[in-house]
Design goal:
single chain, alpha/beta, TIM Barrel, Rossmann fold, 2 domains, 6-stranded parallel β-sheet, 16 helices, elongated
């Protein structure tokens, strides 16, 4: 489809909360809920002679000339409508945004419309369904969704029964003007007239300005409206809700205006839906890694919507520190360079690791190697949004306490090996070079840090993490530290739902 207007100023990407939230709900609830026969298309199908819903209607309510859709309106009383209960249910489902149909194709507005007297405040329940839901949902931290189906009203009620009440001019306020039957096709020959288009647009403006929905959903068929009306609808909404997002189908709006919606189908080709990336460095005492050791645990972050990558570094048998940190930084660069290939959002990357991997993650963020030969991807940043350090062996400066199963300073210790088989007691300058806290000051460029350590760690004393935490606080860096009571060096305690949620919340805060 060709476009005559300049839509570029109205283009919007999906907001971060929507990318992260993924799951939303909307519900069909309105006048069609009174007969409650099959689905929300009852208002249309009841007028098609011989259709199942038409036969059911005539069996229960009589002829279309005697009892039409308009006659259900006084019966729609919503006696049990409780928006707070709906909000509780949405919250329980895990949905991050939700809302009832704002107006379906039946010309019944679920808000206090000024342009349309056939609404839920002036008739039926005498309540502002949309407004009450918006308030209740937002109180629970749920984004509010408004949905518009009213472009389908053009020809919606046109009946194959010539006696139907929809053809009575006195009922035009409910059904719109009598039109040729072909106007109920998806793309009719006869397009909406100016009066219809003006009312269609005004309904959108009312909702956008009164309730400022976080998402504005269009249920297709918008392309039957002139381009200038569609443009104005998008402008009204984005002027009222600059951080909002429109969802649309097919060619209703130009590409880039909002989120493209596919109903009952799929894309023919893989789409570049970008997700945050959790880069994990598997600990190994700087020796050769078994990189699959934490696949099942890290996969719990994948279930939260992250692309997860596990980094292999050069071990201490072939390369001394800081080779491991260099490798972590190059892994980040590789993933960023190939972000489209892996479906990664290059602006949302976290570097994490456990044990020696935690040390590597810290140094991976601190090391300055962009302009050295170590950088395998010149011009590609290794910057990350945050660091997650699981019981990292970050310091060799504090004397060992708690009975330790591993020494940390002798030439054959993991730390001595990664520093070139050196005795770190005899070479304190090497111990300082390896210890993270000795290389941090107020000018150190570091993203926020999240630390976990077990109180019963017999391999890497939790004192080291406490020292790092205090140094980060002292130098003005953002850091959170959790001691996991009774946990040793690793174990399921670090991958519980509670800890995964803490990590997820930390990462998403880093992305803001």
């Amino acid at each position: 489809m060709s476009w005559n207007l300049d839509w570029k100023p109205l283009e919007h990407d999906a907001p971060q909360w929507m990318r992260d939230g993924k799951f939303g709900l909307f519900f069909h609830w309105g006048v069609y809920s009174v007969p409650a026969c099959e689905n929300e298309w009852y208002s249309r199908n009841m007028y098609l002679k011989g259709c199942k819903q038409n036969l059911w209607h005539e069996q229960h309510y009589g002829k279309l000339s005697e009892f039409g859709y308009k006659d259900f309106i006084p019966m729609f009383k919503a006696e049990r409508f409780d928006p707070d209960a709906w909000a509780d249910l949405v919250k329980l489902s895990g949905a991050k945004y939700a809302g009832p149909v704002t107006e379906h194709a039946d010309n019944y507005s679920l808000w206090d419309s000024k342009i349309n007297p056939i609404n839920s405040v002036k008739t039926g329940p005498h309540r502002d369904i949309a407004g009450e839901c918006a308030a209740a949902f937002r109180k629970q931290g749920i984004k509010y969704l408004a949905t518009f189906h009213h472009q389908w009203l053009w020809g919606w009620f046109m009946s194959t029964d010539n006696e139907a009440d929809v053809y009575d001019p006195a009922n035009e306020i409910y059904y719109g003007p009598a039109l040729p039957l072909e106007t109920n096709r998806y793309i009719p020959y006869r397009k909406p007239d100016k009066k219809f288009a003006d009312i269609w647009l005004e309904k959108i403006r009312e909702v956008a300005e009164a309730y400022r929905p976080d998402v504005l959903y269009f249920d297709g068929r918008v392309m039957i409206l002139p381009e200038e009306y569609r443009y104005q609808a998008a402008r009204y909404y984005y002027d009222a809700v600059p951080q909002g997002i429109i969802t649309y189908k097919q060619e209703d709006f130009p590409k880039g205006l909002g989120v493209f919606d596919v109903e009952c189908g799929r894309f023919a080709e893989k789409q570049p839906f970008a997700r945050p990336c959790f880069v994990f460095v598997q600990g190994s005492a700087w020796m050769q890694q078994y990189v699959y050791a934490k696949v099942a645990q890290v996969a719990k972050l994948a279930q939260k919507g992250y692309v997860c990558a596990i980094v292999e570094y050069r071990h201490s048998g072939i390369a001394s520190f800081p080779a491991q940190a260099v490798d972590a930084r190059n892994a980040v660069r590789f993933l960023r360079k190939n972000a489209a290939r892996f479906g990664i959002d290059p602006a949302r990357m976290i570097l994490a690791g456990d044990s020696s991997g935690g040390h590597t993650a810290m140094w991976g963020a601190m090391l300055q190697d962009d302009h050295t030969d170590d950088n395998l991807y010149p011009g590609v940043s290794a910057r990350v949004c945050g660091i997650v350090n699981y019981y990292g062996s970050t310091s060799v400066m504090a004397p060992d306490s708690n009975p330790q199963t591993v020494n940390h300073c002798l030439p054959d210790s993991p730390e001595g090996m990664v520093m070139g088989r050196q005795d770190l007691l005899a070479h304190p300058e090497l111990a300082r070079a390896l210890s993270v806290e000795c290389n941090i000051d107020a000018q150190t460029d570091l993203p926020p840090v999240l630390i976990f350590h077990g109180t019963k760690d017999r391999t890497v004393n939790c004192t080291g993490s406490a020292i790092l935490y205090e140094k980060l606080k002292e130098t003005g860096h953002e850091v959170s530290f959790y001691l996991v009571k009774g946990a040793d060096h690793g174990g399921p305690e670090f991958w519980t739902d509670q800890v995964i949620d803490l990590v997820d919340r930390f990462c998403r805060k880093c992305f803001e």
